[in-house]
């Protein structure tokens, strides 16, 4: 877990911020993704591939990016019977990805930890989706419980099972960081630069506030992908992240 610890000191170097910023390749196809990666250049070194792109050639793109020295976060949110999850994770580990998400159900997390054994793949548990609020959880059938409480409960389970990190809203990052300790990753989506529209996210935070709250990595998609100048947008976010640290 030393990789997580190396991201927590109070440094504000551009290189450190680039390692923390994960650009979500939320585009419909590989060619659009390649074009975005090209436009970003060295402003980004870490990319997230989710459902939309994964099922449109994204796995081959992942191999391409990894071969070019980039890091890849496969946001697949696996959740199935234990054996299926374990074997799926084992296959992803052979791909060379850095992060893989699974849903934070105990059986699923145990299977994922078993599947990544012996590899450098890091498993991230998704606690509560950032598009959910308390009302959504009740509608989904959960007993009345605040989203933050469910996040905390699942974070503690993930820690005890040996999962490498947590995906949570930045509004819960401080509490999650305290629960899982300094040796695990805290990855926060739902990041919006100061003054940006929240879109369909219900629990959003600015880049600087997310870092201050204890996030080790920020996932940013639309504010970069939809920008007229993606590189400039990424660099502005990197500057916001750096501002979270003392001069």
Describe this structure as you would to a colleague.
Its EC number is 4.1.1.23. Substrate binds at residues 26, 48, 75-84, 130, 192, 201, 221-222. Helices cover 47% and strands 15% of the residues. By secondary structure, it is an alpha/beta fold. The protein starts with a helix and ends in a 5-residue tail after the last helix.
Brief synopsis:
The protein is of the alpha/beta class.
Helix and strand layout, with pairings?
Layout: H1 2-5, H2 14-20, E1 21-24, H3 30-40, E2 46-49, H4 51-67, E3 71-78, H5 82-95, E4 99-103, H6 106-115, E5 122-126, H7 134-139, H8 147-161, E6 165-167, H9 173-180, E7 185-188, H10 207-213, E8 217-220, H11 222-225, H12 230-242
Parallel strand pairs: 1-2, 1-8, 2-3, 3-4, 4-5, 5-6, 6-7, 7-8
CATH architecture: Alpha-Beta Barrel
How far apart the termini lie comes to 27 Å
The number of helical elements comes to: 12
- String of helices and strands: HHEHEHEHEHEHHEHEHEHH
At the fourth CATH level, what is the homologous superfamily?
Answer: Aldolase class I
Strand content: 5-15%
Overall body shape: globular
Rg from alpha-carbon coordinates? 17 Å
Essential attributes:
TIM Barrel; disordered N terminus; globular; 8-stranded parallel beta barrel; alpha/beta; 247 residues; lyase; 8 strands
């Amino acid at each position: 877990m030393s990789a997580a610890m190396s991201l927590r000191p109070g440094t504000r170097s551009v290189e450190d911020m680039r390692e923390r910023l994960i650009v979500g390749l939320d585009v419909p196809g590989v060619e659009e993704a390649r074009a975005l990666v090209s436009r970003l250049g060295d402003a980004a070194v870490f990319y997230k591939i989710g459902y939309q792109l994964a099922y449109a050639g994204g796995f081959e793109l992942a191999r391409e990016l990894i071969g070019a020295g980039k890091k890849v976060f496969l946001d697949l949110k696996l959740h199935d019977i234990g054996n299926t999850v374990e074997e799926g994770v084992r296959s992803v580990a052979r791909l060379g990805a850095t992060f893989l998400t699974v849903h934070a159900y105990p059986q699923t997390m145990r299977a994922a930890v078993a599947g990544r054994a012996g590899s450098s793949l890091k498993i991230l548990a998704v606690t509560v989706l950032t598009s959910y609020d308390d009302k959504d959880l009740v509608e989904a059938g959960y007993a009345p419980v605040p989203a933050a409480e469910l996040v905390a409960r699942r974070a503690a389970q993930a820690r005890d099972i040996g999962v490498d990190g947590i995906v949570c809203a930045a509004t819960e990052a401080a509490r999650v960081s305290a629960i899982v300790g300094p040796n695990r990753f805290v990855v926060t989506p739902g990041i919006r630069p100061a003054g940006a529209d929240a879109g369909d996210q219900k629990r959003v935070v600015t880049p600087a506030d997310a870092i201050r709250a204890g996030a080790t990595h920020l996932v940013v998609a639309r504010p970069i992908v939809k920008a007229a100048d993606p590189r400039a947008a990424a660099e502005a976010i990197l500057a916001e992240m750096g501002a979270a640290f003392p001069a």
